[in-house]
Write the structure tokens for this entry.
Amino acid sequence: MSPLERHPPSSAKACASCVRRSWLLAELSGPLEFLARDRARLHELLALEDDELLDAVAGRRRVELKSRHERFDAGELRLQAGVEALCRHDPAYPQALRDAGGPRMLYVLGGARRLAKLAAAPVVLIAGSRRASDYGIEMSRSLARGLAAAGITVLSAMSDGIALAAQLAALEAGGRTHAVIGAGLGVPPPARRRGVYERVARRGCALSELPCGRPGRTWGAAAGERILARLSGSTVIVEADEGRDLSTGRLAQELGRTLAAVPGRVTSPLSAGTNALLMEGALMVRGPRDVLELLYPLSTPSATAPEDASPGRSLSPRLRATLERVGMGCDTPEKLTAVGVGLDDALLALSELELMGLLGRGDGGRYVPRGAFPPS
Amino acid sequence: LRRPFRAPHHSITTAGLIGGARRGCIGEVVLAHNGVLFLDELSEFARPTLEALRQPLEDGRVAISRARHSAVYPSRFMLVAATNPCPCGYSGEGELCRCGEADMARHRRRLSGPLLDRIDLVVNLHRSDAGELSTPAISSAQAREQVSAARERQAERLRGERISVNAQMDVRLLGEHARLGEKGKEMLLSARESGLLSARGEHRVLRVARTIADLNGSERIRVRDLGGAIALRPEPGLAASRAA
């Protein structure tokens, strides 16, 4: 039997016109994809009423879609098992999404009750580049781990790079996460993301504004930014270039959400966006503690995350020196020997630090510090 | 006597590598017996061809079975392989790498699994370290001396067992000849507990640590020998997904 069940209109929480809206968006996927490059315009279009949207983008299919739109029966759409449909007329619909630019419909894998529970804790959005550096990945992991351990709900897109690392780390820390998915729920994700998707479904919520099983393509991810930026109280951009990576942060800024960024190397194009945000006055984040202090300004008891206890404190001087050197860019045994450490000593220290979980391996086997190095 | 060195091209077929194209036709793994089999561009070899290496790597022999004949040949060789870290070759060099996460996943999949599990040492080479190639720490002649001395040590130790090198030690011999001190045991235990090493990986690390100790001329496996073996183990970077 197919996992898709007949969606009985009677028990549906969503009203027919909102379900119809999500159907319309899926039908207009082609022209919307064409417009996805200009995010501001896409977001403007998505704020339009059905009729206006049809006039604006349907093109040659306008007449056909209009008549189908009029005859639309909400029973046509099927819900995947475990998915609940919520529309903005539902009292359970998240308050943050109710403004004019927010989506009309939300499909929630995990259910509305879990969504409400997740939204009751402070929600922090972790966003950034899809093609992040090892530094970005590790920073994203350490932030998500620390925040999840402190009981904060971690929100991110379901995309590669920064977002995926954040989801995984938050789940590993036993936290609960939201993921906003650009495609409809139930569209099989690529193999490398399948495990995370399943774990999010088990412990957290996956959200989409498209009907189950409808592909979202690029515009779906761009549209998902509207949900991401709205659902979170604070947004942390971990690593972003100056192009599209920044769009989520810009949107959060426009909505008046707290925007924070992780600083990066000035010479790295991958950090150009985050550094620019900091220049413009975004708050600087060096680790989970900084985010927690941002959420709880006077250090209340909950403001100390167990994960954020400085990892270098109890280390022997030898290991501490190695950890510092790796943090400064001597990330291969060869480079460590070049600054005068014996090869044997370098390998031993690297292995010990790796066993302690203070170092990980990145691209090309380079060593990467896990978590922010404590400002001592 | 010269030991064989075989370096087949990556377009080689399974029959070419293993043997059995015609009656009596032996493959590269048999020709490399007691020598070195060098596979350049490992990720470009056909997957089934690489999988066929499992038996010779594990048992030191290949059994070829065809409809009209079957034969078993010895093939105990040292496998040396080289590969790019990603499809474009610039992974780990910062912004130079143009590979997306999907490309990386595909590349890792080709190298993951049982074959990688049978490799003992992985050395990552970085472009930025290339300058040091011109000034090697020790000369080839010195390295040769060290290796011969280490092999003699091993042969001496293993004389009663009818094998001559650490690579051939089984679990029982490892327990006998590759004992660790308290600190070393602790390290290995924490490696097991943190999930960095599997049971098979632990034996491999012990074997490598024994060899490093032999190269350093030490009868005891010191902590630094073990540290080196752990740093050279193959799992990270290659098989593991980056985000995981």
